[in-house]
Amino acid sequence: MIIKVLELEKDKARLIVQGEGHTFMNALTEEILRDPDVDVARYVIEFQFSDPELFVSTTGKKDPLAVIIGACKRLSKNCDVLLEKLQNA
């Protein structure tokens, strides 16, 4: 996965997430929105085969990149828990 930073400020970030589609981006934005310091988390896929653009805006209390990283770590942890439960079933 290649990430291109289009805009980065204290309270907002715009990124291109190459190679991802609706499945990952929906999960990521939902996880980002669980953070109470996030105002907006959305993504746009302009054309059918274009890479998604992620926009995250915070209240200013947290760095938007730190919020995105935290959400990715939580998603990964959830997947690990699911895999463990499936293996033990």
Task: Give a description of the structure.
The protein is of the alpha+beta class. The chain has one domain (2-88): 2-Layer Sandwich (Gyrase A, domain 2), CATH 3.30.1360. Helix content is 42%, strand content 30%. Strands 1-2-4-3 form a 4-stranded antiparallel sheet, covered by helices on one side. Strand 3 and strand 4 form a beta hairpin.
Describe the secondary structure blueprint for this structure:
Elements: E1 2-8, E2 12-18, H1 22-33, E3 38-44, E4 53-58, H2 64-88
Antiparallel strand pairs: 1-2, 2-4, 3-4
Name some characteristics of this structure.
89 residues; alpha+beta; Gyrase A, domain 2; 4-stranded antiparallel beta sheet; 42% helix; globular
What's a quick, concise take on this entry?
This protein has 89 residues and is an alpha+beta fold.
Q: Secondary-structure element sequence?
A: EEHEEH
List low-pLDDT spans.
Answer: none
Q: What is the CA-atom radius of gyration, in angstroms?
A: 14 Å
CATH homologous superfamily grouping: RNA polymerase, RBP11-like subunit
Structural class: alpha+beta
End-to-end distance, in Å?
A: 31 Å
* CATH C-level class: Alpha Beta
**Judging from the principal axes of the Cα atoms, what is the shape?**
globular
